[in-house]
Structures
1.
Amino acid sequence: MAELPIIKLEDVSIAYNGQTVLADVNLTIPKGKLALFVGPNGAGKTTLLRAIVGLVPIRSGRIVTPFKRSRPAYVPQQKTIDPLYPVSVRRIVQMGLHWQLGWWRRPDRQARAQIDQVLQWLGLADHVNKVFAELSGGTRQKVLLVRALVSGAEVLVLDEPTSELDERSEQEVLKYLRLVCTEQSKTVLLALHGVAVATSIADLVCQVEHRRVQMQQPACHKLHKTGFQTCTQ
Amino acid sequence: MHAIDLIRQFPYAVATGLIIATVCSILGVFVILKRVVFIGIALSEVAACGIAASLMLGLNPSVGAVAVTLMAVALLAYPYELRRIARDAVLGIVFVAASSASLILVWRSGFGLAEVKSVLYGDLILAGPADLRLIICILGPIGLMYLAFVRPILDSFLDRDASYVMGLRPAIWEWLYFILLGLAVAMASKIAGSILVFCYLVVCPAMGLIVSKRFWVVVSISAICAVIGTMAGLFAAFRWDLPANQTACLACCAILVIATAVMPIWRRIMAASIWQGNNGGSHA
């Protein structure tokens, strides 16, 4: 049976200030897959992800997404949250529930339990009432990841969500993302620098380089289905 | 001479001052967090420019202040983070243009300088029943709307990109906040003067941020500081025959200075008591 595409890019070109960053990108990402975007600095990984979620306008082509009926969850690459803001981890995570709650309602018991469960999974249960700005860089990244995970979004767009994590935490996070794909049929678009570990869990690897995107099969494709394993080919 | 005498003699000034203090100080929390401190003084000057233009044209000064301030807000609410020019620079340009224009308009109006100055920059102690009514009608709904919409406004300011992707419309919430701020500053500056409004927008929220790292506590402390500063300032002005606006500003600044000095000591005492408690617990 053919896999149902959830995101489709047809001849997409993106330009900044008249300069082409990506040209003629054709990409199909099926539902429930983990797509890894790799490439050198400045290749356009972030631009591509931002275009997919609608933060960057495209110059030509077409991006087909289900985001009008089901919003994606997004973890940006940069440190976007100003440390001046006096907000707790819980408040940041609750932002992820906006699509379900709207701007008025407070999370019910079920939603709070869901938040606690994901926080527990990523080892953040003790941080829930702490001030976000006082956490380490890695812990802040995990909090933003939790915000994306609790949102219930079908598609998670994660731009280098493990760049400030230590090796062990990175493996835990990637394992969790693999699990989210396999068990909850969520589609994950993940931009990463350290590809050695990540290719072992990805279904698709998209090489972004020289203004082009090339789709490849991951090197250790057969290993990923049961969860995170080290590539041993 | 007691505070009760002040309330008896200047009931409208006290009530008007307290409403302006509360609303401007809670709005000011985002002025500090968004790092647009200069917006307070720039919008005050814009409002003064609107009043001066209204005097020239024979219109209602409040209408002129609101109209010109809303035009400036439309310009300032644009997300300058994405452009070459920073919002601070735009604020500076708006401030210079508005303050120059208001002086030129005053010069051409034919009114006496002292008269125009009092109309342009206001004096809280002179607030009358009409001012109180105006402030209740405008600042009351502004304060309530702000409290009702504070969550999406906070989310939009906190992480613009993520909130956009999640389906929140950050541009709309930012515009709403700046419109509420612009209206509040335009109305309050006319009655309480630009410096006092600027003080409520900056000094009181700064006090809140020094004392706490919880958003709602910061908002509450900001309002409490503004209310205490206003009452203390008005009382001192009444008692020693001082200018009310400036005395209230100084009172707010004094509270801020005291808080800045006391908070580190308070935190050290709290940390020591927690440490002692933990130590005692482990021995037991």
2.
Amino acid sequence: MVWAERLSRPLFSKRHNKGVPLEYKDYYQILGVARGADAQAIKAAYRKMARKYHPDVSKEPHAEDRFKDVQEAYEVLRDSEKRRAYDQLGSNWRAGQEFRPPPGWEHFNGGSPGAGGPDLGGFSDFFEELFARRGGGGRGHAGFRMRGEDSEATLTISLEDAAQGSQREISLEIPGSPGPDGRIQRESRRLTVKIPAGVTEGQRLRIAGQGQPGHGGGPGGDLYLRIQFAPHPRFRVEGRNLFHDLRVAPWEAVLGSSVEIPTLAGPVRMKIPAGSSSGQKLRLAGKGLPGTGGKPPGDLYAILQIVVPRHISGEEQSLWQKLAEESHFHPRH
Amino acid sequence: MTSIPVPVIEAELVEDSTFTLDFAMLCTQLHCGADEALDLVHYGVLQPRGQSPQHWRFSSLDIYRAQLSRRLVRDLELDLAGAALAVELLERLSPACP
């Protein structure tokens, strides 16, 4: 089974098992502000952190997770009610420390649950534990029918799967219905996605209705899967064209030869013209990735690499020596 | 234990380079009103072919651009002009995406 990897937009986080301690989140530390910071300072800090970690723009490692934390921290600290409630927990907690809400916290209604990390698949279990609205409302907006947001994820596939089409199983976690305590439960959902033959890197697949669930009975958004190719041991890819480094012996390059070369559909023989040099490109038309929608297939380019033997026998040594004496070839002239 | 059957869903290939969507289809795909779509065109987030709204044709790359700009506006509090610039710069940085 394959996770839709590197979610530039989310699928969802893990589900919290009740009774298991949560990790305390220090929202002030996440935003890099003091506990007494005013609203303006919090907003400024959010903007700075959001620019740094926004998954659409950031190259930072784990940017998506960091951005999610930043959004969650901002959601709490910008809202005076939520901030007051959060501050009631006290400052004696440290980030990552095991946390259980204090007795009586169950009855706290932290005001509006807010947008709940739109498009990032919900906030942490810590946030849910503290601020989830009791009584079945959850994050939904009663009486308000709204289509769910579209989600995006990156799906890494092999070149072979791209060429031939394939089926891949992906796992999504989605907000489900409210549990007995009124908190939204997360549900895992598995899908097998049929990937059409001929997809190329960077293209997107749309899976209708499999994005985030709608609110108030509204339809689900769409799930977009951006195609990424797994590194291939034999081919590099540019668009629909494939490139393969073809190692040949000096005599094959000089005299010409017919050598076996791999393609996505299996090996074929390719003619090496006499007098070929390293770096020359030889094209096998139509042996790249297949075209879609009437587009022509790509080509396979063999990049010649002349390699020499490291260990040679005495006889070979004398033959190379003879060649060196006989040849009028001057590669540096 | 019985295993739950996993539904098989056909993925639709989104052709980024084909200009097939008219203005109404674009609004439907984006789930937005005409005013919002017009703003996206005027600020350069969307780059349709054709001279007038009646003749505009959009590619699905425009759908991606619109969604990206929405996220940037919402999360980074950019205005549309800023979002349009950011979308363009992001495309220059990674021409293979989407």
